[in-house]
Fold:
Amino acid sequence: MTNLKYSVLPNLDGSCELSTSNSKVITAVSGPLEPKQRHRLPLQSAIEVVIKPSFGMGPTPREVLMQDKLATVLQAVIVTELYPRKLVQVNAQILESPFDEFGSMMGNSFNEILSPMIDLNSCFNSSFISLCDSAIALKSSFVSTLLGVTEDKLINIAEVSDLDLLRSFNFKSLHHIVLEVEENKPTNVLLLDSQGDFNDDDLVNVLDNAQKITQKEFQNIRNILKDKVSQDFIWKA
Amino acid sequence: MSVSENTKNLIVPGDLLTCAKENQTIDILGQGIYLSFENHLYNSNKIYPTNVGIENYTTKNNKNIANIDYNSKRYIPQQGDYVIATVTNNYATHFVCTLNNFSSTVNLPYANFPQATKKNRPKYENGDLVYCRVKVVDSDLPAELECMDSETGNKEGFGLLEAEKGKHTAILNCSLAYCRELLFNDKGFPLLSDMVKKNLSFEVAIGINGSIWISTGSLLETLCVYKILSKCEKAERNLHAQIIEDTIKEYIKE
Amino acid sequence: MSEVIDTANNINEDTNGIALMQFPKEVLSRLQPDLVLQRHLQLGLRPSNLMKFNEFRNVEEQSNDALIVNHSTASQAQDNTNSNTSGDLIVANNLLKVGNMFIKTDLSLGITAVETANIEEESFAPIWPEVTVDRGRMGAPTDEEMIASRQLYENIISGKYIKQKNLIISKIGKKHLESEEISYDMADDEENDELLLENKNKWCFVIYAKINVYSREGPIYDHVFNSLMLALQKLTFPSVYIEESSIDLQISSKKSFNKKQKQETKRTFNMKFDFDACNKLNLNSDISISSNFGVIYKDPTMAINVLDEQESNEEKEEDAMDIEKDNTDFKKEPILINDISTDIEEQAILSKVSIACNSKNYKSIKLMNGSNNEKISVQQLKQALKFSKMRYEDLKPTI
Amino acid sequence: MSRFEFYNNDGLRIDGRRSNELKNFESSITTTSNFANFSRNTSTNTTYLQMGQNKVLVTINGPKEPTNRTKIDSNKATLSTNINISKFSKVNRNTNKSNLPDKQTLEWEYEITQLFSTIVVLETYPKSTISINVTVLQQDGGVLSAIINCITIALINNSIQIYDIITAVSIGIVDQKHFLLDLNHLEEQFLSSGTIATVGGGDQVSLLRIRDKFPLDLIEEFMQVGLQGCSVLKEIITKQVKDMNLNKLVEIQ
Amino acid sequence: MAKDLVITNTERQFILDLLANSQRLDGRKSLLQQRDLNINITPNRYGDIYLELKRDDGSIATRLHCKVTAEIVKPKDQRPFEGTFYINCEFNGLAGLNFENYKVGNNSDEFYYGRLIESMILRSNALDLEQLCIVAGLKVWNIRVDVHVLEFDGGFLELASIGCMTALLHYRRPDVTVRNEKVTIHSFDEKEGVKLGVLHIPIALQFNLFPLKEAAEIIKTNTSSENNNELVVLDCTLKEDLLKDGEFIIALNKNREIVQLNKPGGIPISASKIVEFSHMALPIIEETTNKILKAIDIDEKKRNKYAHLLSAENDRYVE
Structure:
């Protein structure tokens, strides 16, 4: 079950701590800020994403790839033209990942791919709440889902709480899908990152399921936001 | 207006505005609503809500105004706002000020002071607070502040916020909506008058950029006002009276 | 603004005293890539070599076997876990020419010690790629290079191309001192046995890929991937032998002050590659071909012919807003562009998808919508998937 | 620990000093002919200090216009310290290939900058920087104290305004009871030791650095020994500086 | 974001005035009062600690995440019998925008504090490195502690030292058997993890100095140590931290041993005061150490609920 906590960092404009059954991240968004000279764009805001791994110095290439994916999608969602010559900074720190214990990567080579996908999936959902919290203008909402396809099943990876089970799944393919949500309904695909062996039918199946999960998950997010707004105006009530 | 009741009207980016659903015309777009210029080209205007908040649709002077009420911490300069700026640097023609830490800096030209001449220019030091108004906002240039009413040339209460002799001052940062409410809605939100009723004597200046400047006669009184204002931001309305009483007891009538 | 730039033919001042400037094509394409792209799209063409929307660039494979392997050089492995042998020895290469862009892939081998007993059947080996885009200067890798390297690494694992089992060195030979010949049987004499048995199934190959991109044109990832795939297909493993003379016993004698001193012997094996006896790598799955697509909306207001019409019946200084109002019936149409191939396209097209597939399956899809106004719909994705299959069939003969 | 007898029954240390005896202390500036090859006409003096076998050179640049415009403070000067420990300064040559300073040196730089920022009258030099460059030619225990002492002398020689003289010594402890002042190389390696710097030889401690395990109850004695050492050192430095400046005046005349 | 946090003159004066009157901006009424410390150990994991400093009103002032990870590496050439130990402590953008995201400046406080903690543990042998050796010269454990600052309002040094020590005390590495140079690593299911050899628990305490007079005056009033020249404040908030004018840091363990005593420059303070405060630090550190041990003990009890049925020991902590 996804657990969201908003406004956890009072020092920053917007923040969120997200924990799923198997991972935990904290993200923060600040903006619009004064950018450094090299980040300055004349007609729109620059978006800087920094993801820190759960251990060790970062960002390593693993995180750079994650940053690139997150930044590209945020580019489409944030109303960048509202803040020309400014910077929107997104920071994420991965706190727990199912693969950060010694030896957890071994045994299944797919884990090497699964691990950044799990982290990124959490980062996406968490950064949406952070963006809302920071009051940066958004064009639409989005929800991210991570699905794994095994021989006979489709698995929503965020809901697997047994780490040993997660590490030993024999996935045929993995799909990370970010769907745009408009008027409470999932509409466009913002990001689709699929790896492994799959065919057209798998893809259709995955997209269908992702829509269902997104619909459900968005209700949860909406409730959180409702709570957030009433907390924001608590002194008024 | 109670907020908790109104969370039914919660608007999330990507939603359709209720007024748009009901085909009501909107003349003025308030905060949190964005008209995409991309679509404007094709006369198929699409109005986006861009922030999470509560939709607010009112009619004023025969104009329909729609906006989304939301709270935030970072101030984006808007023309005509009363702000408290911090001087961070000075140049030959202007002060460089900041309205929020790490936001883009804004300029306060010497010419925007009353009776400004080349020789008579204000001497502010870095780190000083100035109460002023946003004069011009331009997306390509830093916003410009002014320390006078540009029509009359009067001082109008703008200027340096400094501690007078025997006074103790403090500056409090809080959320923008809270500051707006304190400044504009004294009738609906009489927190400051409540405090005065409890025999607290203080002077405040409220900047829309989330800064409240407090000045009182004693250090503890300043701390007391500071504490009340910051505690009330995080407490429900009906608890405010209690907070005022408790804090006064804690700091003043020990 | 955009109209002003292109319609003025010579520098002359207009009424506001603002000089109008004319830019050469190359400059304009850097200043206003979207404008240049739109102008081309109106004509049904693309900026690079006037390609069609659904056209791919020509791909030529130029392999040069002379580059591979210098038999006299040999590689060394030390008896410890993180030894990796020098990666200078190129065992397979590929030179891919895509349009004007060259991609050179060099595969080299290393040897590492592993617990072979722990390797499962369904365990797949990675390749360690290092992508370098030639930009005329040295320095830390750019984000693009890091992303491409990492993506290759992930996609090689997820594509399940190489089984870890296939990389185990099961047979280790020994070069005799006198006879200079290499024996791979280990039944001969006892001394032999001990040495070779000790080393049996203890070592594993590691594949390194050094990939250079010259005269970059548009996104590199897909072509780099293809080049790596083609090189991988040619990969052969040499046999490994130990030169008898080179078995060293090293005694480490580091003195540590007032610490209990343990004498530690370290054995160094000089492992050498024997290219006379090569085995081909058995790929677990067919190689796949990656191709990319982008979606852009044709924007009629940016078209040059529209302006021409305007010019004929209206004043040049006509306010831009008026022009737009007159053309409200214009519709934006989405265009699927295959094989994003120039800097102009790369910068102007924000929504991209890259698909790797072989005749059976898709191996990876990476779809990123970078713009809210120009999204890739599911319909277009389907179209792109179809094209990618076609592309695979197209390139199959070269494979 | 007891491989060496650091402090024998006669009250003598390995190098023959008493427990509270300082190493010989000799400082000079380039104008006094110790280093003829350094140009006399440069705007800055090079100060050389020999404290036992520690050999330290300090040059001070500034106050000068800052190269980095972001570092300008319109109210006062900024200090920067750069310590270069030469690779041949120890018995074993430092085999570290990179030319970057190691972490210990960076720590020292940080501490020395902090230390002298309160001692130098920075308000006299607004919008400028003063950079302190230290070269350690040879080290023999208590290098940090030698560097600090040398910088103090260098600041005086360069006529930069300071509030007071800073003196520093290193202190070690043998067998939890004997305190040794101004350590040499061997003592520093095997004993719990620390460095202390005081202002003007009084009891105002400005810098303190103990990085070894050390019984809490001995701290008072440790401080006393340190303060004593510092105040003796202050006299020495004052005398030497006065002599140096007399020489300087004589030369100028 | 290399920019500094701007502290306005009004704020500076207000905070300093408050301190002079023994008041703190966050509601504390004594200069030596510390904020409440909370140690949370993540269940199901080893060496994963969250630390919180709580203000009087219950809100979290500073939050730190410490995580221990282990891997097998080749030892350093000079020390073939010892494992390696690193502390990676970075302030990233989450701690506040005044911290730069990529590089840590060499002259920054963060760098200095990180080094202090690392040398506090290494130089005093708080962690037994020889226990981490698997095969001498070839395979040793590398223990790394990552300190993530999740929220920052002062008190970093104390928290980081507490966090590192708690995490090291709590962490268990997988057990290893070596037979004929063959190394087998046992998962936690096969064999219970091995605790790290923590020999003593050093904890740092930072005393912050605020001058009551001009710096020149303090230096001039040399020998008269009776005079009160400065305020000594414990557990500064971020803003107080930026306004302070000197500090001294003491790291102690329960055995009355100083592990570190640092005063890096700043305004001078009389020697007798340093001695006085060093002795004052001891009870504070003893209390903190007990807090750490208790947190770990409670966690361990939770982990093996049924262990007490098998053990003959009495409960150590009776509430």
User: Anything to note?
Assistant: Strands of chain A lie at 3-6, 14-19, 24-33, 46-52, 87-96, 141-149, 154-156, 173-182, 185-198. Chain A has one domain: 3-236. Residues 3-236 of chain A form a domain with the Ribosomal Protein S5; domain 2 fold (CATH 3.30.230.70). Chain A has a mean pLDDT of 89.
